[in-house]
Write a structure and sequence with these properties.
Layout (H helix, E strand, L loop, with lengths): L9 H39 L10 E5 L4 E2 L7 E2 L5 E2 L1 H9 L1 E5 L10 E3 L2 E3 L1 H13 L2 E5 L5 H9 L5 E7 L2 H4 L3 E2 L4 E10 H8 L4 H6 L4 E5 L4 H8 L4 E5 L2 H10 L4 E5 H10 L7 E17 L4 H13 L6 H7 L3
Parallel strand pairs: 5-8, 5-9, 12-13, 12-14
Antiparallel strand pairs: 1-2, 3-4, 6-7, 9-15, 10-15, 11-14, 11-15
Helix pairs in contact: 10-12
Length: 327
């Protein structure tokens, strides 16, 4: 506060001082009132002003040292080197590995552990995809059923599912599927003696068209779904594995086993004497498309997988699979 300089006689000085003090008090009060008004006005204006938009969320799992990487307005991730990537690719690159869900039970020639090394057609596809992305591959083989593989992917425990996985409508409710990398016909493996008893002289197509006898499937497989549509009148019996189903077929517990043409033809290829007891019927009008599973939240990765399959020169059919079993 400035110092007041007062001159003149004592009474006059007291009078002037009183007037000056009253004036000063008035000026101070005015300044205070103005300041309060401005402060109040600023507060109202601040309250009325729309809140600034929140910054775009960072992709927590896409980081180099724990710090989330920023997203652009279009949802792409800004990588430390300046590149822009879709979130699914940023996650994979930041992690340094592609996680692939694969059945824990070997299915040669698609995948099997031989001499301590995982190999097979599906393993090759996974390795090639990882190489295209510039990362390594890690296989999650916790699932013991094909539907379990789907759940691993749906729960976010893998980036892809490459596991001789058939495309079915129930699975399509949980995950996305690539275009098929192989399409097999569905087939029946028949117990000759049992089938002759129910045929009563009718041809195989006639019997199968209205099939109402026993038929075995591997539980929690695509064929446990297919059988309901393809053979609605059949007496369906599920088995925990293909080996268990084949044992039941040999014993005559079921008349037919339902699976893809590769698996049923491989039975006769691996045991030539089996043709004396068993018979293959291929259903040429029913396909079993085998595809790669992708999480529903990863559309860019799905497009990448489809483009990879379109450019891949190695084409696979049932003969390729049967030949691969000789290696």
């Amino acid at each position: 506060m400035p110092t007041l300089q007062i001159s003149g006689s004592a009474p006059h000085r007291r009078h002037v001082a009183a007037i000056s003090l009253r004036g000063l008090a008035g000026r101070v009060a005015g300044v205070l009132a103005m300041s309060l008004a401005l402060f109040a006005g600023a507060g109202v204006a601040h309250a009325a002003r729309p809140a600034a938009p929140a910054p775009a969320p960072a992709l927590a799992s896409s980081s180099t040292a724990g710090a989330p990487l920023p997203l652009t307005s279009t949802g792409l991730v800004q990588m430390p080197d300046g590149r822009l990537l879709a979130p699914e690719f940023a996650r994979i690159e930041s992690r340094g590995e592609l996680v692939v869900a694969m059945l824990g039970v070997d299915q040669p020639p698609f995948f099997e552990t031989r001499n301590g090394r995982l190999m097979g057609i599906d393993v090759d596809i996974a390795n090639e995809l990882a190489a295209k992305l510039g990362v390594t591959v890690r296989f999650n083989r916790d699932a013991k059923t094909f539907d379990g593989v789907v759940r691993l992917l749906a729960n976010g425990d893998a980036d892809l599912a490459i596991s001789k996985l058939s495309r079915t409508l129930p699975r399509a409710e949980l995950i996305s599927f690539s275009t098929p990398y192989i399409s097999l016909h569905r087939a029946l493996l028949l117990n000759r003696m049992n089938f002759a008893q129910i045929a009563r002289g009718r041809t195989a197509p006639d019997v199968i068209r209205s099939y109402d006898s026993t038929i075995g499937v591997v539980m929690n497989s695509s064929y446990s779904e297919y059988v309901r549509t393809n053979f609605p009148n059949a007496k369906v019996r599920p088995y925990p594995s293909w080996e268990a189903l084949l044992g039941a077929l040999d014993k005559g517990e079921v008349t037919a086993a339902y699976r893809d043409e590769f698996e049923v033809k491989h039975v006769l290829k691996s045991d030539p004497t089996a043709s004396l007891r068993l018979r293959v019927v291929t259903l040429d009008d029913l396909d079993d498309p085998i595809a790669i599973g992708v999480n529903v939240s990863s559309p860019a990765l799905l497009a990448f997988v489809n483009q990879f399959l379109a450019e891949r020169s190695k084409k696979i059919d049932v003969n390729t699979l049967l030949q691969a079993t000789d290696k």
